Amino acid sequence: MFREIMIPLLEREFPGYTFITASSIKEATPLLEHHAFDLLITDISGLESPWLSMILQARDQSPGTKAIILTSEMSSFWVHRAIREGVLGIVTKTCPVSELVCAIHSVVEGGKHLSPEIAQKFMQHISYSQIGNPMNLLSPRELEIFVQIGHGRRLKSIAKELGLSPCTVAVHKHNIARKTGIITSANIARYCLEHGMLGLKPEQTLLRSPTAEPEAAAA
């Protein structure tokens, strides 16, 4: 539904650009591997950590790629983490189309854009992060595994989902414990629950390609 409504509007607003869409992170991965993008717009129903790995992957592939998140719900923790990792725009899905267009213009031109309620959550998190949030010590991959453990998933299951070996995931868990002091899976789950890090999943990704390499929009 998002694509059917938004793509024609954005194509009119940004003539000369080509839009490529994907319905999931899995579908987006090969696109990120074969194309360089000006902008990555991720539409999410909430936020677990895989969206972060996807954004970093896009930036590894094309350092100039900028990112905007569309969200219906986002905790102050994830707002702060997204901005810390270089996301330049976070817009609520209830905002008018004009705000999304404004956010895209701002980010493409090198600025930032946060919806008012998102900006408020960012300010709420600043005082906590300044006194030593242990999550700031984790790499994006470690944070991803931390949240997966918080959901109660076993290491073998996490390894399969992320395409890693169980040994590698176990090493990440050891490093998580060393950095944060949070050792058991039960304590990880408790921490995630208390800090609004659970119950969220990626929904849809919108990709915009540079004018130098026009591509047909994906179905």
Describe this structure in words.
By secondary structure, the chain is of the alpha/beta class. It has two domains: 2-130 and 199-209, 3-Layer(aba) Sandwich (Rossmann fold); 134-194, Orthogonal Bundle (Arc Repressor Mutant, subunit A), CATH 1.10.10.10. Helix content is 52%, strand content 14%. The chain contains ten helices and six strands. The chain has helices at 2-13, 25-34, 50-61, 76-84, 97-108, 116-130, 140-150, 155-162, 166-180, 185-194, and strands at 18-22, 39-44, 66-71, 89-92, 113-114, 202-209. It has a six-stranded mixed beta sheet with strand order 1-6-2-3-4-5, with helices on both faces. Strand 4, helix 5 and strand 5 form a beta-alpha-beta unit. Helix 7 packs across helix 9 (166-180) and helix 7 crosses helix 10. The radius of gyration is 18 Å and the shape is globular. This is DNA-binding NarL/FixJ family response regulator.
